Amino acid sequence: MTDFMQLPHGAYTLENVTVPACLLGLPGDLIRTNISVSGGAIAAEQPMGLDMKGAMVLPCFVDMHSHLDKGHIWPRSPNPDGTFMGALTTVRADSAARWTAADVRRRMDFSLRTAFAHGTRAIRTHLDSAPPQDDISWPVFAEMRDEWAGRMDLQAVCLIGCEGFSTDGPFRQTADLVARHRGVLGMVTYPVPDIALRIRQFLQMAGERGLSVDFHVDETLDHTSNTLREIAEAVIETGFAAPVVVGHCCSVSAMDEATAMDTLDLVAKAGLNVVSLPMCNLYLQDRHAARTPRMRGITLVHEMRVRDINVSFASDNTRDPFYAYGDMDMLEVLREATRIGHLDHSAPDWVQSILSNPAQACGFKAPSLAIGAPADLVIFKARDWSELLSRPQSDRIVLRGGEQIDRTLPDYAELDDLMDRP
């Protein structure tokens, strides 16, 4: 499908567009306004006006939790049963056998081109970093970050299980590698006996290197798993000052009300940033053979908002054993988060969960519609939320620096030789 209109070059005004009021610092839901573009930035009113007939305009997206190193391996390594353990064992086997620098680079580039075409301008990715993979994937990421500079702001987080962490083992070298590449220190937390000590030592290692941290947390519906609380307590007690991101946090949705709310009070006090990954969690959680799932796996996003916890949504895995689907499209993420998490009939500013909220959590430049901000915009023919979230919006327009980009998506056939396809 082609874009629904061709915009001019240079200076012009998009007249009669629909914009979420929160993006202009105004109360209410959606408003009609004009947006002008000149010199690659949002500007004062320009003489050339184009009637957009109510088309909705958003700034380009921020995707703060992805796995670009895993992306698109599903055709060669599908999840055998759709479970979390099925995903974990399958990815480990695939990475050990296939994740060369060339393999990781090509799949990563495919995902970046896809995200760019959909309108994303900043991505944080997790990189599996158990040795020797750390010495393969981090240099590839550094090359990709340089290649995409000016089009996509990229950050990377190392990813290891908490049982692979120690202060005197191989992870120390991994942490130094992350620091050299200006990355983020990351770890998966689950309730091993000494998890409280491991978290504190992990924060200390990050602090010594001047790094922020990003945890995968309680990706389970086991109500007894509460490492989210351990992280919040550790941050409060140590005074760790750098930004802390916690992702997934599924188990809190299965806890009794008193325990869950007490945990969230600590999360708010610690100032943690939460990122929910609703599509992946809906895919993996509460999956049992020949049994309909009862629970959604999404964390308690409404209760977090009430406590002024910074909440975002992100794409997570894409066509790999942890999630068989997805296309690096943050509009799809917002659409599914709205349905899964009942964001409708709620606050009117949930759109910030894919814009300013993740930018704040990661330190990316905040998307903006203010005069002087880059004219990095996504334009949809939809005129209200129902129209926007009912269709994929495949004919959207993406502007970068005020210029309309080619939105042709990469063809999956490009990767056929990596999948052993003829």
TrEMBL record:
InterPro entries: Amidohydro_3, Metal-dep_hydrolase_composite, Metal_Hydrolase, Metallo-hydrolase_Enzymes. Keywords: Hydrolase, Metal-binding. One of its GO terms (biological process) is cytosine catabolic process. The keyword DNA-binding does not apply. GO terms for molecular function: cytosine deaminase activity; isoguanine deaminase activity; metal ion binding. Residues 199-394 form the Amidohydrolase domain. Transmembrane segments: none annotated. It comes from the Bacteria. PANTHER family: CYTOSINE DEAMINASE (PTHR32027). This is Amidohydrolase.
